[in-house]
């Protein structure tokens, strides 16, 4: 889901840093031989320095110093201000579902402070919604100055959105991520029941999968610190492209949900085939491969044989509709590692910007990666299964250790 940073402004300028990258020959060997097996043997991809968004500040800002002092990007098992707040008329079973889900997320990815999950009822009263109002006022969410009504919360609801009660970019900055959902949505998330014909348990599975997705965005934001994650924060942001923001998150939430759903008590009784009906990664791969090669086509999908991953997929407002960026992220992990995709890149992007971190940790420029991805997608047998290891089945901590991320 698109990250929305309502009301957060970025005013800080950064000094430019020129990163010199040695040439990488796509048809050659080195540590990225596997990355290049599908590239045309007669062609090579030469890496050039084109890091206009790789900006670095040589002097730590007051905002950075404050975020370091409060350990904003340091994972913990029990971080402060991870909250679930609901209107009084929302059944308590959902608190159990959200709290258990957060517990298991913290165990894998680490607990990061200031993550707010807020549930209200569209058909509820202002009296029952008072706990929701109180929390939104406390963290100075949009419209807090004169309080809220249920309708006003509905008008401002978003997931993932945010606020900063300390003042963005100041020495008191204290950014919060906020997911505001209505109870009615929880009963039929993304119409998986009314249109998809799934069960109430599968609806809850969809909610759990969605929480994991939004929490991964919170993780991405935490390591961008006071620079901000993408172009929506201004030109001083780390400049993370939309395909990575959404692709890495979508891949994480699916692999994590497949691993953890059986540990969540509110999902007891859910059968494996019911899970597969909603989360089928090999099917994702095959369908997208056939779309890209023009074997199958849906007029409203926006993907066909003329589509190639490009710079237009680096922004929400220009990205190709219904591009399955999860497959883009999975391909990057296949070339490098899931540790690189999920951990090494965000670990370095505050200092180097996304482009600089990407080049440091993958040995490729973004354009070189796009060329290799496009070559891969347009040259594979459209009926094949994903390559071995494309979607790992082992526990996440065996191939990506989130707790080892450097937070400094």
How would you characterize this protein structure?
By secondary structure, this protein is an alpha/beta fold. The chain has one domain. Helix content is 39%, strand content 6%. It has helices at residues 62-69, 93-109, 130-138, 150-156, 183-187, 200-224, 242-260, 272-278, 281-292, 325-335, 338-362, 366-379, and strands at 15-16, 55-56, 82-86, 115-120, 161-163, 176-182. It has a 4-stranded mixed sheet with strand order 3-4-6-5, sandwiched between helices. A two-stranded antiparallel sheet has the order 1-2. Helix 6 packs across helix 7 (242-260), helix 7 (242-260) packs across helix 10 (325-335) and helix 10 (325-335) crosses helix 11 (338-362). The chain is globular and about 60 Å long.
